[in-house]
């Protein structure tokens, strides 16, 4: 079937399906039936902007050029986010996870804490993590705190790097956060250096396995919902491998590790559910390896 909508772009079902396969293969993002309409509208918008009349032309261009593929992908990403998006999750970080890490690492030299915000969009999530750390960990300047924030979208990362947000975006934070952690710049508010320097941004496609060292916490909220069951399970396994024993995984409300078959321990903290890698995971592994050898 060939469809022609608001714009004069002509795209066949076959071409749309080829575009979906390419996107799934390269980014892991699945445009299933539930997002059919969204997908088809965005494809046509893109073609109209590029002055392309036929789907075959768009296919040829995105297959042949990484720059064009990236531009196409940017149009299809969902980047909805906000500061303190799930207050219960950040309460769990503040009241359970960080105090636990504080005790565990207090005598380490250097005292280091590594947190990954995977799929950070325009930066609200990693900055909320940094604000929570600054609020909770006494003399956080004396710690080596690294919050690595990654996303596939270069546009979102550019915005996040600037760290400038309109006032209405900050309404979900506590009132003292605004004065302690932002400076006013005209109608907008800029993240203060104390918070900014904890966060580093980098482009990263979660569909490709890249090892970046171990983390104490991984936030991957509202990203797995866009992946197939298979990709989701593989990514959850990678998160498990990348976490320190006793480390925590934070997912979005509609996401869970349930079907992934990975040994995470679900923990309810107030109104939130978080996942812990067992503290004895490393010991268990090395004991098992020792037994295999003998
Ligand atoms: C809905 S936003 C979630 C933002 C934030 N984590 C939150 O919960 O508020 C999803 C983010 O995942 C990113 N994303 C989608 N597929 C990705 C991939 N394969 N690799 C890295 N990031 C991806 C999108 O660009 C987008 O910024």
3D architecture notes:
With 294 residues, the protein is α/β, with parallel strands linked by helices. The protein folds into two domains: 2-76, Chemotaxis Receptor Methyltransferase Cher, domain 1; 87-285, Vaccinia Virus protein VP39 (Rossmann fold). 44% of the residues lie in helices and 21% in strands. The chain has eleven helices and twelve strands. It has helices spanning 13-27, 36-49, 55-64, 66-76, 87-105, 124-136, 154-162, 175-181, 193-196, 229-242, 281-293; strands at residues 2-4, 10-12, 112-118, 144-151, 164-166, 182-185, 188-191, 199-203, 215-220, 243-251, 265-269, 272-276. Strand 11 and strand 12 form a beta hairpin. Helix 5 packs across helix 6. It is globular. Bound molecules: S-adenosylmethionine.
Strand-helix topology:
Elements: E1 2-4, E2 10-12, H1 13-27, H2 36-49, H3 55-64, H4 66-76, H5 87-105, E3 112-118, H6 124-136, E4 144-151, H7 154-162, E5 164-166, H8 175-181, E6 182-185, E7 188-191, H9 193-196, E8 199-203, E9 215-220, H10 229-242, E10 243-251, E11 265-269, E12 272-276, H11 281-293
Parallel strand pairs: 3-4, 3-9, 4-8, 9-10
Antiparallel strand pairs: 1-2, 5-7, 6-7, 10-12, 11-12
The protein binds S-adenosylmethionine (SAM).
The site of S-adenosylmethionine has 26 residues, from loops.
